[in-house]
Amino acid sequence: MVASTANGSRPGGDITPERVSGLPPGPQRVWVEVPRQDGYPAAWCYSDKRSYLPGETVNLFLSATAPELDLRIYRDGFHETTVHRSHLNSVGFQPVAANAYETGCDWSVTTTWSLPDDLQPGPYLVEMRDPHAPAGARPLGHHFFVVRSPTARPEALVQVLATCTWSAYNDWGGANHYFGLHPNTARGRSPVLSTQRPWARGQVWLPDGAPRMVSATRPRTPQPPRYEFAEWAYLNGYAKYYAAAGWATYERHFFRWAEGSGYEIDLLVQEDLHGNPEALSPYRCAVFSGHDEYWTAQMRAHVDEYVTAGGHVARFAGNFMWQIRLDLEHGRQIAYKYDAADHDPVAGTEEQHLLTAAWEDPAVGNPGATTFGVNALRGMYAGFGAFAPRSSRGYTVFRPEHWSLNDTGLGYADTLGDEAAVFSYEVDGLDYEFRHGLPHPSGTDGAPEGLQIIAMNWSTAAEDGRESDKSYFMLGDGDARYRASIAGEDYTEQNRRRFARGAGMVVSFPRGAGEVFTAGTCEWVNGLRIGDHSITTITDNVLRRFHP
Prior knowledge:
Elements: E1 3-4, E2 32-33, E3 43-47, E4 51-52, E5 57-64, E6 69-76, E7 80-88, H1 100-103, E8 111-114, E9 122-129, E10 141-147, E11 157-161, H2 163-169, E12 192-194, H3 228-236, H4 247-260, E13 265-269, H5 270-275, E14 285-291, E15 294-295, H6 297-308, E16 312-318, E17 322-323, E18 325-327, E19 332-334, H7 340-343, H8 369-372, E20 375-382, E21 395-397, E22 415-416, E23 425-429, E24 432-435, E25 438-441, E26 452-460, H9 478-486, H10 493-500, E27 501-511, E28 514-519, H11 524-530, H12 533-546
Parallel strand pairs: 4-10, 11-13, 11-14, 14-16, 15-17, 16-28
Antiparallel strand pairs: 1-2, 3-5, 5-8, 6-7, 6-9, 9-10, 12-19, 18-19, 20-23, 21-22, 21-26, 24-25, 26-27, 27-28
Helix pairs in contact: 4-11, 9-10
């Protein structure tokens, strides 16, 4: 792997102060994964699709700095199960176009695998190793795909993986939706990303002990913020945002916990949900977990119709923020985000409702809370960087009588999930008001009728701290500024503070014949990962009610 900064250098010990003196401070520095034939030992892989049915053929496109590879494909469930092995005698290095992040790799097929008709549905990893490496050496790379159930399984839950968010953070080939080498855009971010490229290193597999987005301990005194995930990624040659999105950090922990708890689970990727209005209909309960930020209007419509018809949605996920568009025929994802009003081709047209901006943008006119009860812009960050780094990392309970809290032992004003830091990184909320000690939705931002706020805590959209620490902020106040802009407000200091204020919530509400439960945080899965009693009990209560 070669990870490049803006000046083309690689991570680790070969970067000297002289060579990076023109770059911004460490937390703002970026690097992207761009393979080189003479780079560090590595292998890369992508497949023609992200999900398959048993009996279909998986086409694998590989490139490597090693001439030979040992390939292993295994099901990454509660029990790891190897299902295929092969040795590739001549892999070769396949060239990467300068804009492969946007147009795809266009590599030749290296090998294929016909999925057995009786292959168990679930998550599958492709592991690539150098057969001549010493014992104990780490794999050279990984790829991920889903095997869907060939028949309807009403006895199963269905978990929809946030593959569009994975794509948004995938910098492989030179750019993602946040930063990179794309010309003439802020921070070099690309509004168009291809699915026909490998995942960035760390998105689908991680070694034990890799840091999460939130630092392990809270600072006790004022200090420049730490971003331990970025420090670790830089020193070990992983994608800067490996911990921000992907199977390895997020959905894997829900799947393994649920399968280990006895639940039958089928998987879909978001592209399945987008393209098939009936994708959820065979199931009584659909689950979304982890960091789930990017959606199309079609996905939302399909979820809304599913719930209205009697389906149940359990969302243990955060950061429901951006509308995107998918071009499935060409394998591309489009998201102009903060620049949509000026650069998205649909701006000012009859298709402006498909603008790739925040759901709360008046031009979009489709508030996020109408689907999941909360939205990202009313929440934002907590316990991350200089975003309230010393805050409680749990929710405060306000409605302990709610069915989801049965057998937790929690009462009014108790905190749930603090030890697991579930209220951290990115959280979702609503505009609210307090009456008689209880929070209620104000109804100004799309909250559905009958919504109850079960638990909540406070968050911020702006990093804050001492003046001397501000040059170390990674994100600053960009999201507070964006909130003000779509509200049509000037960005004064008073408005900066106003639009920075937010809250994250646990909510539930009925819709038609169905019901939705949302724990609006990316890090809920960390409570499942470490076995936090309150988090596992609430999750189990929700799944057993929605999937009796």
